[in-house]
Amino acid sequence: MLSEFQKTLLQSVKAFQSTQLVKNKYENVLQHLDSGIILFDSEGVLTFVNVEMAKLMELPRQSLIGCNLLQMLRHPHLSRYLKRKVIRIYRETFLYGKKFHELVDEYGRNWLITITYGDQMDGDFLLSVKDVSDYKRIEQTAYHNDKLAMLGKISAAIAHEIRNPLTSIRGFIQLLRPHLIQLGRDEYARIILAEIDRANDIIHEFLNSSKPSAPLKSVIDIPTLLGEVVLLTESEALMKNCEIVLSLPEDSSMTVSIDTKQIKQVLLNIIKNAMEAIEEMDAEHRGMIDISAHSEGELVYITIRDNGNGMDQNLMNRLFDPFFTTKEKGTGLGLSVSYRIIKNHRGHISVDSTKGIGTVFEITLPMVDSKSAVVGASQ
């Protein structure tokens, strides 16, 4: 009789130990997830919080266990910013019943908030927070590429059909010009020709943005390239009360294989935009455009920084979209063309900006070693 009892007790202990091992195993998995996890019971008391969530909240895990939502909000070490975020998440998920909610933090990172509850949770509420910034960037890149593909189809269909009648109109206006001069109306002909040329320039941008020509690469040193760009822009900059400063590291080899004309087009476009952003500031504002370059590993980084008007996050998100512009006479194609050119060079272009402070563009290009440079120059 006693042995049967001992046997049953031993089995119960083993079952308990097995259950505890399984529990510890799954808890360990939850602790090391890259998502923040927090669990409230049916009474609204916090019963579990993993390492990632405690890190996001910048609070020790043990100080959160056993708190309800109100006590958590009153935590002396919870920042005011995080309190606002917690209240917003509570409102969106619990009050409005949204099981999925997205928010952007002060650093521009995207977060996906998910809440799980119901019969399968036995009355508990599981809240998870995951950084989805990388997925958002991939999604935005795919969306941008879809737009460019659509632009290519449109341009192939209509661009040449527009150019042909413009060429005919231009020819007839030139034939009529002597008669207009006799009538004292040469100004009319000049304006018409200028507008036709402007329309042709827009169509040229349109075609380039949909399908920039394949790069005709040659080997060039980045300091040489940037020096030429500064020479092309510094006189216009001075006229617009801007100073262009070129900063380059000493004794640094930064050789790239690029289509010099195309990359110059990108750099000149960014510098022109910087001048226009500076013009939007107060007339007494002294404009500064800093151009620098440095190498890291097999990449060269070109940075163009201005102290112009800057832009907000919404504007930055659409900056490389075709046809998006804030200028009255802009086509919205300059930066989308630049994006395609850098992409065709296996590079990357990014922007960071603060309204009222300025904007920073960074272009990354792959470098070539001395052996590749010799091969590239001979081709």
UniProtKB/TrEMBL annotation:
EC number per UniProt: 2.7.13.3
Entry's SUPFAM superfamilies? ATPase domain of HSP90 chaperone/DNA topoisomerase II/histidine kinase, Homodimeric domain of signal transducing histidine kinase, PYP-like sensor domain (PAS domain)
Swiss-Prot/TrEMBL catalytic activity:
ATP + protein L-histidine = ADP + protein N-phospho-L-histidine
What's the short name of a Pfam family annotated to this entry?
HATPase_c
Domain PAS stretches = 22-93
Give the enzyme class: transferase
Keyword vocabulary terms for this entry: ATP-binding, Kinase, Nucleotide-binding, Phosphoprotein, Transferase, Two-component regulatory system
Q: Mind telling me which CDD domains this protein's record contains?
A: HisKA
Domain Histidine kinase residues, every copy: 157-369
NCBIfam families in alphabetical order: sensory_box (TIGR00229)
What protein is this chain from?
A: histidine kinase
This protein's species is Paenibacillus segetis
